[in-house]
């Protein structure tokens, strides 16, 4: 009984380490998003850290339009990054779940 418990605890610790490793790896996964007319381009990591913003000179002349472009394009990029992030972390968590009867909610 204690062997099974120790095995499960080791599996949980191993999974926690894999989750941390995955989070670090997601800092290197870059997602590029741009406005429909390519006047604004953003690059963020899968951990939702902004790495770059490229703004067309035309947008610099209209503050309100630039703000709208930023909101729309950044939200699209964050949505994409969130999907990648959630998918990767869920895969690691599912892989590391011990086989406990009645606890198959992740399968």
TrEMBL record:
Pfam families: YbaB_DNA_bd. InterPro entries: YbaB-like_sf, YbaB/EbfC. One of its GO terms (cellular component) is bacterial nucleoid. Keywords: Coiled coil, Cytoplasm, DNA-binding. Residues 5-32 form a coiled coil. The keyword Coiled coil applies. It is found in: Cytoplasm, Nucleoid. GO terms for molecular function: DNA binding. It comes from the Bacteria. Binds to DNA and alters its conformation. May be involved in regulation of gene expression, nucleoid organization and DNA protection. Belongs to the YbaB/EbfC family. Homodimer. This is Nucleoid-associated protein EJA19_11925. It comes from Mangrovimonas spongiae.
